[in-house]
Amino acid sequence: MKRFIILFGWSFLFGALPLAINAQVDSLKQLLDDKVGNERIVVLNELTYLLAFTDSDHAIEYGQESISLLDGSDSILMATTYNDVSIPYYSIGDFETMIELNRKSLKIRLAINDTLGQGASYMKIGVGYQELGIFDSALFYFNESIKIYEVLGIDSYRLSVLNNVANVNERLGNLTEALRL
Length: 181
Description:
about 180 residues, mainly alpha, globular
């Protein structure tokens, strides 16, 4: 029975879940035809996010269109757009572009006092530097993110970033520090 449950669970994850995502992508593509301005950007961002790891080429196309439509009238939408468009660049290993987009998002989030968004941007910039092997920068951005999540009292986010810090310390050979976290 246990094997059946495990097999069923795996078949759901690798069968039904991709079908559900494909259906959502198809629906969003149909919606896209009727959307203009900020409404179009929202749909493009959702497509970018959904396709980031399964079809990064199309995700980047949607994301670039989204960026091209930004007019500066909605700071939250701008920050979200740069954040979402960074994800397929992470997926293809273009960490420099990922960092650049998240820096743009962070700059906006700092200007509008979006503290939660700042924490996410700091964390993603840290991940980019971690992937590039620039560990001192990774640790700086991770620590900025941790400070924010501590103030906000969001332990699950803080612990996730602490895991990244531990991974960096492990790669640096600081095993005692990595285990302490």
